[in-house]
Write a structure and sequence with these properties.
By secondary structure, this protein is an alpha/beta fold. It is 45% helix and 17% strand. Strands 4-3-5-6-7 form a 5-stranded parallel sheet, sandwiched between helices. A 5-stranded parallel sheet has the order 9-8-10-11-12, sandwiched between helices. It has a two-stranded antiparallel ribbon with strand order 1-2. 5-amino-5-deoxy-1-O-phosphono-D-mannitol binds next to helix 4 and helix 11.
Length: 365
Amino acid sequence: KKGNYDHFMQKEIHEQPHSLTTTMRGRLKDKSVILGGLKDHLKTIRHSRRVVFIGCGTSYNAALAARPFLEELSGIPVTMEIASDLLDREGPIYREDTAVFVSQSGETADTLLALDYALENGALCVGITNTVGSALARKTHCGVHINAGCEIGVASTKAYTSQIVVMTMMALAIGDDRISNQARRESIIDGLYKLPSVVGEVLKLDGQINDLAKSLIDAQSLLVFGRGYNYATALEGALKVKEVALMHSEGMLAGEMKHGPLALVDETLPIIVIATRDSCFSKQQSVIQQLRARKGRLVVMCSEGDASLVCPGGSCRVIEVPQVADCLQPVINIIPLQLLAYHLTVLRGFDVDQPRNLAKSVTTL
Ligand code: UD1
Ligand code: M6R
């Protein structure tokens, strides 16, 4: 089942050019997106007052990555809820809301309870899941199967990238009736067609990331700074590292750096800064400058060709990744961090596919 790979997580990381292809199969036609599971509900979604994304763990992070593009294309406010927190607060959900539930397994207890709660409150409930016939798929009013293929490793990898792609396609479908978006839409659709092959390119960084992992093997802690489209990348990269490599790791919003985290910076704490090209690039450049001024131990992820720009003088490690459309960049940027978590785990001698204390789906409370 693992073929030439040592672990399912490794196989699933390397399978992403293929899983993304199956996710998109039959759903892109020339310059339009067809999501069979949503087409009869698009009008209702467009007329909703708010879209609420609800999920746990990696599925929540995937929704966070897709949020800016959905806001941009739909003009509808999009809010985020971790399923357990929505339930703890009994937060308001209205009939005029579209509640989008994201779950690889479709069986996560908190997500399903939040779904019951949203159904009781009369919201339109949409599912995004990898599992046909799951409780989530059955109980939602409509939805989209991500079709990433069975995911076995406890650490979710290929489901994350397929979830982002499905939610990006969902944004394209919802925003379809706006003429003003047309050029933007077409360039993203073009980017979707090319995405699997670019993911294949990024996977060639495997050896370089293994070297990076060797340099981090004994670190006590790892921070990941991101913002905009890649705030989610920071959270998800850190989740992978803590979950499988059993290393303390936190993803942080770079815009919050001066409001606390900066106090942690010294010459020993490794910090990954995501600074690929998008509208936040110059802000991330100044974050890097400030971290360098405090002699931070930096690893910068930047777009190809930007190494000397983000790190003049070569005082930090750099991971260069291909640039794609801004809203698709999280799909590219997570891959080196998935590889890093994988290699760190192997080097530290921990169980990759069955991390300590964790289950693939959390079906009990
Ligand atoms: C569907 C078929 C697919 C076929 C294609 C051809 C299934 C599972 N999918 O794919 O095999 O090749 O038509 O046109 O038979 N749904 C939910 N909640 C969820 C997920 C899905 O209610 O969380 C519903 C959808 O609204 C839809 C159905 O399940 O009614 C299937 O969804 P999906 O597989 O995404 O639809 P298609 O891509 O059209
Ligand atoms: O099956 P789900 O997507 O609902 O699972 C949600 C989380 O339990 C899951 O993403 C968890 O965070 C993963 N182990 C992360 O790799």
